[in-house]
Amino acid sequence: MRVASVSEKVLNGVAAAAGVVIGPAFVYREGQPETAARAAAAPEEELARFEEARRRAENELNALAERADDQGREILTAHQLMLQDPELQNLVEAAIRDGQPAEEAVRTATEQFAAMLEALDDEYLRERAADVRDVGRRLVAALTGRTVGVVLQRPSVVVARDLAPTDTIGIDRSLLLGIVTEQGGPTSHTTILARSWGIPAVVATAGVLEAASDGMTVALDGDAGEVVLDPGAETRSRYEAAMARAREQAERDRAEASLPAETPDGVRVELAGNAGSPGEVAFAMEKGAEGIGLLRSEFLFMGRSTAPTEEEQYQAYAEALRNARGQRVIIRTLDIGGDKDVPYLGLAKEENPFLGVRALRLCFRRPELFQTQLRALLRASVHGRLAIMFPMVSGLSDLRRAKEALAEARRSLEAEGHPVADRYEVGIMVEIPSAALLADHLAREVDFFSIGTNDLVQYTLAVDRGNPELTEMYQPYHPAVLRLIDRIVQAAHAAGKWVGVCGEMGGLPEGALLLLGLGVDELSMAPALLPRIKRLVRSTPAAEARAVARECLELGTPEEVLALVGPLVRRVG
Ligand code: PEP
Ligand code: MG
Known about the structure:
The protein is of the alpha/beta class.
């Protein structure tokens, strides 16, 4: 038993992304309930506060612009201009002179200004309404001493209640050492991002926000789910030793990146990477990915104030394909909704967003949005080996409707004389139990399946994937899940189609071993996880994995499954 030093505070959360790190905390307080409205001070004082907030917002935008790409810089410039807009300024000043505190005045003025823009005939100006609202949010945050988005000035461990993907989009990854959140689960989208960046993360860490303060040293272990605030000398040296071991392992992984993922008895598994942007495609390839098993296209739509145009999307998809150097890139069509909100799309608030208008359901309701993406994808198809994948397919009618939309996009491009590749694969995510149960029907009408275990687990077990209260119940090793996966694989193979897994389960050693045993052809995961899974594949005979998986299908609980698989995985280390 380890004895904690007098000052250090040890907290336990859920291990979310592997790795250990020590660094100063950056406590991100955005997303906390807003403090109660304050009474207005004298107008002169409120005007001075507004001026100060404007300067602060401007500095934040400058800092963001320094490391943004061209497209990001364009948006940030628009926001800078908005901050200086005399009309907006007049509205705020008038509201302050009317007796409102600066926060309230900014809210009223930006809402008025945005509504005014929305009423205009000019489409470009109408779209600026979202920018105005964004700028208003930044100003209110500056007035209340908070920041919008995580803006790091030095290498830091970000401590937050939770991080929405939009909060993380502007993060300077070279300064991000680790993430600790009070909420979130192992497959929430922030966790997925952390894992894909190879950044250690611990989520569902009760009490961390209250206990941590800016600049406090934080040690975090993303394998054990441990967070130590203000670590003592003994803890520090333990963490430093672990960091040194991780560096050595990373060296070995680099040396082994080009070895094939083949079991000792000659079964070849394709190991691919998950990505959220063209840049991450390049990163995955460096880590030894044999292609991209999931490019979450919705991340291109986040952290901005309007949807990317067909041309912008085409450029991004073409770049992703080029970065994969001839290997297959599976680009998933938009999966917005659930825990991924895109404010400018104006999605309705729902009681149960994971069961609501998400992914294809949203695309079917917004044919323009869907057609723009499908056209951009097909135009990009000439730049590499493209596969298009539809998410959240619940049955044959979803699939047929999505394929018809794709055919329509193709017809319109051909009519306009755009070149489109002759051959690209079309597949679906199998992540809703109804699709798993109808896999035999679906398999006849697709080129491939990719099993989305993150959602398949949540929908099969009725456990919200992001609810920290239910982390224990969120079990990819549940025999009910394994039986569904078995059924999906059998159906795909019976129809002569290949089947992959792009959910987080494929990147967990126990999960990968079971999936290998169930006959999955491809595993796609956060690139940082590839080396370890490759070691596992190269040292586990497929015949042994098959025998264990068969046995697990007959078990009754996830605990029994883990008891059987755990020792085989630990053997590899
Ligand atoms: C999944 O559900 O397993 C998946 C890969 O998709 P997402 O995590 O984006 O829902
Ligand atoms: Mg999913």
